[in-house]
Amino acid sequence: MRAAALYTSMMAPPKWIRPQLSKLTARAPSGPQWIHEIKLDGYRMAARIEGGAVHLLTRSGLDWTNKYPSTASALEKLKVKSAYLDGELCGVRPDGVTAFDLIQQSSDSGGDGLVYFVFDLLELDGDNLMAQPLIDRKKRLAVLLKSPPAGVVFNDHQTGDGEAFRRAACQHGLEGVVSKRADRPYLPDDRSAWVKTKCLNRAEFVIVGWTDPEGSRPFLGALLLGYYDNDRRLLYAGRVGTGMSQKTLALLQRQLKPLAVKTMPLAVPPPKETRFGGRLALSRVHWVRPELVAEITYLSWADDGLLRHTVFIGLREDKPASEVRRERPV
User: Nearest to residue 229, comparing CAs of 206, 248, 213, 245?
Assistant: First the structure.
């Protein structure tokens, strides 16, 4: 659905708006038409408020209000008749840096301690703001969140040299920045006006199987990863075996076992030998239905098309496996 179909005035916010997306670039842009925000490390989340009732909606439109009641209760305190907010739900370390593993830990307790960073305002008290320039939407959002309830934060922005801002973000251990055209309306699904630049190589991959553990390692060895190409083929991307505590290994095993299948889901079998990493014994691989999405960091893509030096960050419950593609900076 394009934004133009939603630009007419409304008495209530839409039930759900497909989020505006971003594309990966090698360098952050600069110029007066761009603003720059810290790239947050959490779940993309919309908040729909109407008549005091709050609904938290994922990037695919799932209602996660009951999963994060603390955030919903905080948003109920906003003095609005109706509103539609776009933001990111995050766990925050003591140094102020968002961390994906914290949101997963907090999910078990109803989201206590999480922070909802709001970066866009699409509807307010019956006014549809989607056609307005981003900078105007953010000005109205700043006023709305001048004294926000605990657990809700206005995600501010900077102007000027985007690369300088990205370098500063990297020096502070942040994931990267998102640069946005200040003069553009909100366009669902569009990637032309928002770009992201990262400090680390980090991306999402589909889990296609796991290997048996070796030595004293419990539960499972490594996760086999894949991604979909433009022809909807599921291609092998490599393995990840580090970054997982025993608790995480046990959780992964519990979630993967019900998905086990005898037939390999990949379009092409993974190589048994690679330049980087040990030999992969296919007889010890347990294939699964490609439903779970893992977020990992990695050093680089090797010449053989496989990932190097991977580290597991966490599972992404907010992104369908069918949407996972290999990101290539432009």
Answer: 206
